[in-house]
Every structure is written in C-alpha cells, then in structure tokens.
Amino acid sequence: MTSVDGSPRELILRVATSLFAALGYDSTSASQIAEAVGLSVESLGEEFGSKRELYLEIMEREYRAERASLVKALEGISAVTPEQTALVVHRVVDHYLDFCVAHPEFPSLWMHRWLADASDVTELERRYIQPQIDLVSSVITPAMDAGYVDAGVDTKYAFWSVVWCVHGFCQGGVLDREGNRQDSGDPAVLRRFRAYLHRMIHRVAALPEPSPMP
Predict the structure, then answer these.
(1) N or C: which end of the chain has fewer CB within 10 A?
(2) SS3 letters for 89-140?
(3) Which domains are present in the chain?
C-alpha cells in the first residue's frame, strides 16, 4: 500500500498522525499502525525505528507546517500605529484559527498532550511551542513598548486564551438548538467564531479598530 505520492513512508506518517490524533500516543500501538498501512511491525521498525521516533517525526513535521504558515502570515507586517497593532493581532488570531481548522490533527495532538499523553516524551513544548510564542512576541512587543496595547494586559494569558478557545472549537465545536454538534469548518459557524475571537482579544487588550497597513 502506498500514499498518493507513491511513498510508503509518507503513508505511514499520514496514518500514524491520524491514529495519534484520534487515540493519543499512549493508546496507539505500533501494531495498530502497521496493520493500518499493511505492513509488519518489523517493517515499520525498519522505516522509523520505534513508535517514539515516529511520533517525534510527526510532531516535528506538524511544527514545521504551522511555523511556515505563521511566518507567511506575519511576513512584511509591523505594528507602527495602534490601529495597525490591532490588524497584526487579528492576523495572528486568524492564522491560528485557519490553520487548526484546515489541520484538525494539529490541535488534537496537542490536546492529548494537555491530558498527559506521551508524558515520557519531554521537551516538545519547549522545542515547538516556545518558538511560536517568541515569533509572535517579536511582532507584538514593539507595539506594547510604544503603548499601543493596554499595559495591564497579561499577554501570556491572552495568548493562551486564544489557543484554548481555538483548540476547543476545532475539537469540540458548538451545539445547535437541537443539541447537534456543528462542524467547525462550516463557513457560517467559522465566521461567527472568528468574530467572537476578534471581539474577545479587542476587549482584553483594549485595542482600537484595525486599519490597513501602509
């Protein structure tokens, strides 16, 4: 069995990502992954070494994809006025929401870790989360130093509030009046949640309405 691009390795990565995202690292066995891709456990081991090494490669790949997306979203922008600061914050929020909706395995993998999944695999937060925080901070900090953001804002908790909300929305969604879970990718649902996130961060940071970059 091969993936769309003809690579058995790529197929293993895709299948293992889906299983880790759905079941968690601890609840996914090497034999489950091997069976799902039509290989023996021995062949899987020859390709990746161990389940741990496979997981580490998947987390590295997920990080690189999100990092590239964030860098592209922030390319060429700066917060040189209060209004542009608001636009930068909007862009960061929109980037993260759109990436997680398009790649639901990403928030799922990290939410499993929040529940102590793969607790023996340490350093992933320092290696993959902190660089993203630092990148966003490098764009926002000058605006804070200039007084464009309310000095009383706890930026750490503002950042994590967005992450918590986005992950919960992507994984848990919201219920309609009949109690049915709405699809987070539904345009109307997504539009309403995006507007909520913008309003939430505006109120937390006391931001003005955004204006276009020059």
Answers:
(1) C
(2) HHHHHHHHHHHHHHCCHHHHHHHHHHCCCCCCCCCHHHHHHHHHHHHHHHHH
(3) 1-49 (1.10.10.60), 59-205 (1.10.357)
